[in-house]
């Protein structure tokens, strides 16, 4: 059975704009994008979605994977009759956005990936190694403890997913903006790999860490808006 996503919405559609869909990161919810909802809602329709098993959206019975979340997004768009969108994803939300665009390029007009990665080794070791250790511990107790199971599923998204082959990015012709922080948990070399693998991508580094959309929202929103408004 399909789930019903919780979402926050601002603004309205104008002739010159498309709906902007916002996808949050691992363990977060739509409230992460409060500054983007308020800012972009002034001149376009903006929708921030709680991913399956996050925030107020139920877990459901389907697999808890990035690819499943991508198909969830397709069903959400179809249900709300959103034919073509601009798509902004942060961290795991960026991974969902990238896989969605790979599979359904006709549905995406502009793509913004903030702190996305193709595989676990794209994350700096000082962040990824504790995630792997935590996943192993949680997975050991997952069959007996519901809290451990939930933790294992969340951490598993960062250990077992998204596993994207850089060569597959060649088919993503959508104009793409990559945004990372100067102190991001994603390796610069990995973001460079993504940029070089995408046919039509531009990369901007902003002063800050992985959470620049929330912490440095004024600069982040300005850069994103310029990109979205380009011809």
Explain what you see.
By secondary structure, this protein is an alpha/beta fold. The chain has a single domain (7-119, 162-229), classed as Rossmann fold (3-Layer(aba) Sandwich), CATH 3.40.50. Helices cover 39% and strands 16% of the residues. The protein contains 8 helices and 7 strands; from the N terminus they run ββαβαβαβααβαβαα. Strand 4 (85-90), helix 3 and strand 5 form a beta-alpha-beta unit. Helix 1 (34-40) crosses helix 8 (217-229). 40% of the residues are buried. The model has no long low-confidence stretch (mean pLDDT 95).
Helices and strands, with pairings:
Layout: E1 7-10, E2 20-23, H1 34-40, E3 46-49, H2 66-79, E4 85-90, H3 92-103, E5 108-114, H4 125-141, H5 146-159, E6 175-181, H6 188-197, E7 201-206, H7 212-215, H8 217-229
Parallel strand pairs: 2-3, 2-4, 4-5, 5-6, 6-7
Antiparallel strand pairs: 1-3
Helix pairs in contact: 1-8, 2-3, 4-5
What attributes characterize this protein structure?
Rossmann fold; 8 helices; 231 residues; 39% helix; seven-stranded mixed sheet; alpha/beta
- The structural domain count equals 1
How many strands, which pairing sense, and closed or not: the largest β-sheet? Answer: 7 strands, mixed
SSE pattern: EEHEHEHEHHEHEHH
Quaternary structure classification: single chain
Q: How would you name the CATH homologous superfamily?
A: Alpha/Beta hydrolase fold, catalytic domain
Q: Kindly report the average pLDDT value.
A: 95
Shape-level CATH architecture:
3-Layer(aba) Sandwich
Write a brief structural summary:
By secondary structure, this protein is of the alpha/beta class. The protein has helices at residues 34-40, 66-79, 92-103, 125-141, 146-159, 188-197, 212-215, 217-229, and strands at residues 7-10, 20-23, 46-49, 85-90, 108-114, 175-181, 201-206.
